[in-house]
Amino acid sequence: MAAMALSNLSSNIKAHSDLLELDVLSLATSECLAALDLKQSSDHETLRFCILIIANLTGGNHSLPLAENLFDILMNFTGHRDVKCRENAVLALGNLCSNPVHVKRLVDVKCADALVAYSFPTTAEESVNAQFQAIAGLHGLSKHAELRAPLLREGGLEPLILG
Fold this sequence. Notes:
Elements: H1 2-10, H2 16-21, H3 24-35, H4 44-58, H5 70-77, H6 83-97, H7 103-108, H8 111-119, H9 128-142, H10 145-153, H11 157-162
Helix pairs in contact: 1-4, 3-4, 4-6, 5-6, 6-9, 8-9
């Protein structure tokens, strides 16, 4: 319930400064990191909301001091067994792509590969929302001149044209 309430609060951009001051981002990141340990039991609904908190708080153009492992955590969730966790991770990555501060780190974790993959859902399970977010993330990455050629090599042009 707390994760759901914090997720709802994080959707209001006016509340971001208070939530960041209370270090809600690191709490959500810690919960996600713990859930990646297969020996731990985790509640997928709580994880969904924690990933949404990350997506909402990183969506602004403010330069946050993000945890170094946040990008790796989100990339791990793009392959999670829960569909909504995967979709929310794609949303969070798409939001991070819009901020030029994060571009180098996103390239390091091969974010474009995941975004290209989600641009063409393989099953009916994958939602149109995740596809839209993936294409939006590719659009954010394509705004950086030094990434245009690598995006072409990784297959990012076709989703951008179709989107």
